[in-house]
Each structure stands twice: as C-alpha cells, then as structure tokens.
Amino acid sequence: MAQARMFDTKLRLSFETGLNEKGEPIFKSKTFGNVKNTATADQLHQVAQAIAALSNDPLAAVVRNDSFDIVG
Fold first, then answer.
1. pTM, entire model
2. Among 12, 23, 58, 67, which one has the highest count of C-beta atoms within 10 angstroms of its own C-beta?
3. Is 72 within the bounds of a domain?
C-alpha cells in the first residue's frame, strides 16, 4: 500500500501592492521555507500577522504548502 510522507512545508504570504490600469489589485508574494510541519493554523496565522506588520502593503492571503513523497 502506498504511503504519503511529508518532507517540506512552506508558508506563502500575498500582499496587495496596488491597482493596475483597469483598477484590479496587484499582488506580490513572499514564500518562507523551513516551516515546521507540526505548526498549527493558528501559529502560522500569528507568524503571518507579525511579518505583515513589517510591510507597508496589506496582507491579502496566507497559504500553507505541504509537499509529500508518495512511496509504495
């Protein structure tokens, strides 16, 4: 039977940096690696808010990316 084994976790923060000529928002993202795979959603949210406080742009989204090896 195949098994999934987590090997990497990253945190991506997206910031709204302005508007384009059509009035649509422009987003820029920053990805942080070496995130503990045991971190909870609340912990990641707190970290994202702390990092966003250092930015001039508003935080638009927080995404957790877990990568798995599938072995069988």
1. 0.88
2. 12
3. no
